[in-house]
# Entry
Amino acid sequence: MIERIGVLGAGTMGAGIAQLACLGRFDTYLHDPDPAALRAGEQRLRAGLAKGADRGRWTQAEAEAASVRLRAASRLEDLAGCELVIEAAPEDLELKRKLFALLAGVCGTEAILATNTSSLSVTAIASGVERPERVCGMHFFNPPALMRLVEVVAGDETSEETLAIASQVARTMGREPIRAADAIGFVANRVARPFTLEALRLLGDRIATHEQIDRIVRIGGGFRMGPFELMDLVGVDLNFEVAKSFWEQSFHEPRWQPHPIQSRMVAAGRLGRKVGRGYYDFGDGPHRPDDPKPPDRDPGWSRNPEVEDSVHFVAVPSLEEATLVELAHRPATTPADAEAAEIYFRSMGKHVEWVGDAPGLVLGRIVCQIVNEAHFAVGEGVATPADVDTAMRLGFNYPRGPFDWAEAIGPVRVVSVLDELRSELGEERYRVAPLLRRAATG
Ligand SMILES: NC(=O)c1ccc[n+]([C@@H]2O[C@H](COP(=O)([O-])OP(=O)(O)OC[C@H]3O[C@@H](n4cnc5c(N)ncnc54)[C@H](O)[C@@H]3O)[C@@H](O)[C@H]2O)c1
# Structure
């Protein structure tokens, strides 16, 4: 039974995790070796509790009770009585290894030690700890107060009991835990790789502009933000660092190869929102116009194979369900064919976007690669299909999980887009996950 939780590191993640622990009715000890960081983290936490009460997320009384449960611990030794410590110190393997060895000494052999690392190996962090079976990952998402996902990560030696306790604590904190193996990027960060990397390929191959790709992904895919808006938000430089880390850790997996556009953007200082310009310019006004409303549907609309045949069109997951149809010219498409096709799909009540021709066009290519990555992850034992879907919905607000997409699009169609991409572009990155191919062949 866990009653007292220590949180190591009072930065962005540590303060947020400690807030969840206080609200989960745990006695919470927050430590940071930097007194200014500890003070700032404590203030952020208390302000967060008050703000949540103002917004009705919890009551004033709950906020006050949670606030009382917080102790700002100036020394690591103050964490001595904690049954679980969650580490949220900087992303540095040597530092984390050192901290875990120290924590094991301070908290004794029974305490569970969890790391919030996003990209380091839990097994490597646990390697210097006596009884590594009580070390696991508890990977929260930013900001912890709003993102409901926690990836509970099993290192090679982690015991089932440790995982069960960490999952239970995450639930008591009001989060949704999923189980993940100690593989590069765990689940959500890994399965999200194609969201930005395929978008960069599409831009590099001049299939569409970044504004078009974002619009298609938002309107057609139901994602809250397009990939270029996302890179601008998190920082083009940080996104590039993460991309390089995946590629290097995997010994150059082709699916995870970064794109030269990323290094060019960083070299140009176009780092995103934080500097006022990235893919978009963040001047005084909004960085993009609001998305338009869909055209009115003509009640007399009916399918017309002849018009559909005169262009290459892609609607995801299906023409009936799609909100947007992407159109591309075939070599034989005449201006009259193009106009007829546009009128035809608009009168079906669909948004229309013209892009360059390539298998899957924009949304199909991005989504099929996300589905493919998810099947690789499951095939490699990283997580179950249900947990992958939960991870993508709760960790990144995806409108559907990849397995849900696969079912809606149909595995046969997903595989055919990937096979066509591989054959047309000759790139290994589009090889189909064995699990997906098996799903397609039934
Ligand atoms: N920021 C994110 O989006 C995010 C999301 C998930 C996971 N993470 C992971 O969470 C961890 C923390 O990230 P962050 O964004 O909160 O970083 P941060 O820089 O905001 O906070 C790190 C804190 O650790 C403190 N610190 C430095 N040395 C320390 C030590 N020896 N012992 C304890 N604390 C120490 C620093 O003073 C700072 O307050 C990293 O492992 C990161 O990969 C970050």
